[in-house]
């Protein structure tokens, strides 16, 4: 993500001589004059700031809703809660700094924070897709093996899944970035870092391929396969609805709708992040010739996935709209509202 933001020269132009850096191709490390007109910069700030506000407050509403309302304390929703935390953190601690870099064409926050920022950026993107994989597994058991669901997807199992979703991407992202393994073998990379006024992180062929395969393609393929099976079973359920009891009928409809909604969330994620991950894969094989502005645009296209998720939930889930209304009205400060029935709009004392 944001792999080559601010990169202004191709790697074959970088030179390193006698332990000193020749920065003639990069300037002296100070920020170049921004060539964008003031009106364009203002429009970019307004658009990106709007996306940040929706991302932060939309996902915060999802977090508060699931955490507060007892009716929403289900295994699936705990996974969605953890995924909303991922999107919330992306909007709160990643997107604002990326916004400044994107608009000003410069990284003002130092090399050390550049690595921290990029590590969290990479971690959160992989964490999101791991969460989606976990949700796909949860829905697979709920719809395809409903009699086993309560014994397979228990709260301890969900806790272990959440731990894996956070720990594995975190170890990978911080390990690769702070060890600078991603840059091994890239000629002139030290010069780029020493001379550039941006926050350059460029993956070599090995780590670019590893990131694409392990962080995106493999879990993405697993999700697509699982949801293919889920939708096949859902169609069978739809044909069998007339021959089932009313309670079974209602549960089948709920499970099918949940699977469709989460399938849309998965599809939006793959659509938003595939171009960026694919470019990371191809860039080292193209002699790092991808324009910086394209990398930046693809990175923000990926960020917008975190903006879309609460909008998708709001559009497809009436319970989320009701929960949001109660939050905005301040009714959640009354303890008895924890037992509100969000599905029928009746309250239980």
UniProtKB/TrEMBL annotation:
Domain G-protein coupled receptors family 1 profile: 58-313
GO cellular component, one term: plasma membrane
Classification via Gene3D superfamilies: Rhodopsin 7-helix transmembrane proteins
Membrane-spanning segments: 42-69, 78-98, 118-141, 161-183, 206-227, 261-280, 300-320
Keywords: Cell membrane, Disulfide bond, G-protein coupled receptor, Glycoprotein, Membrane, Receptor, Transducer, Transmembrane, Transmembrane helix
Predominant localisation class: membrane
Record-linked Pfam families: 7tm_1
Molecular-function GO terms, alphabetical: trace-amine receptor activity
CDD domains in UniProt: 7tmA_TAAR2_3_4 (cd15312)
Highest taxon of source: Eukaryota
Location in the cell: Cell membrane
Topology class, membrane: Multi-pass membrane protein
Classification via PANTHER family: HISTAMINE RECEPTOR-RELATED G-PROTEIN COUPLED RECEPTOR, TRACE AMINE-ASSOCIATED RECEPTOR 2
UniProt record similarity statement: Belongs to the G-protein coupled receptor 1 family.
Name of this chain's protein: Trace amine associated receptor 2
Species assigned in the record: Oryctolagus cuniculus (Rabbit)
């Amino acid at each position: 993500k944001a792999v080559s933001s601010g990169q202004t020269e191709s790697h074959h132009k970088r030179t390193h001589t006698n332990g000193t850096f020749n920065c003639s191709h990069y300037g002296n490390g100070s920020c170049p004059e921004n060539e964008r007109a003031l009106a364009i910069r203002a429009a970019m700030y307004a658009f990106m700031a709007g996306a940040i506000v929706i991302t932060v407050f939309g996902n915060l509403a999802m977090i508060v809703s699931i955490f507060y309302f007892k009716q929403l304390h289900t295994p699936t929703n705990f996974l969605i809660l953890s995924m909303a935390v991922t999107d919330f953190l992306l909007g709160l601690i990643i997107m604002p700094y990326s916004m400044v870099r994107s608009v000003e064409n410069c990284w003002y926050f130092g090399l050390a924070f550049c690595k921290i920022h990029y590590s969290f950026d990479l971690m959160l993107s992989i964490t999101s897709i791991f969460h989606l994989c976990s949700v796909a597994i949860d829905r697979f058991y709920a719809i395809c093996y409903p009699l086993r669901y309560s014994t397979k997807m228990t709260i301890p199992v969900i806790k272990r899944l959440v731990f894996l979703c956070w720990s594995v991407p975190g170890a990978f992202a911080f390990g690769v970035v702070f060890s600078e393994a991603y840059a091994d073998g890239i000629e002139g990379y030290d010069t780029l870092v020493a001379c550039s006024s941006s926050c350059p992180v460029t993956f070599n062929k090995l780590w670019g391929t590893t990131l694409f395969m392990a962080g995106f393609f493999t879990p993405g393929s697993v999700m697509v396969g699982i949801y293919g099976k889920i939708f096949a079973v859902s169609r069978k359920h739809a044909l069998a609805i007339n021959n089932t009891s009313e309670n079974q009928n209602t549960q089948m409809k709920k499970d099918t709708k949940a699977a469709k909604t989460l399938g849309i969330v998965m599809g939006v994620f793959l659509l938003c992040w595939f171009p960026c991950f694919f470019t990371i894969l191809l860039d080292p094989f193209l002699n790092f010739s991808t324009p910086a502005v394209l990398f930046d645009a693809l990175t923000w296209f990926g960020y917008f996935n975190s903006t879309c998720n609460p909008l998708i939930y709001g559009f497809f889930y009436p319970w989320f709209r009701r929960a949001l209304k109660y939050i905005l009205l301040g009714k959640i400060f009354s303890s008895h509202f924890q037992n509100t029935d969000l599905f029928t709009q009746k309250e239980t004392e």
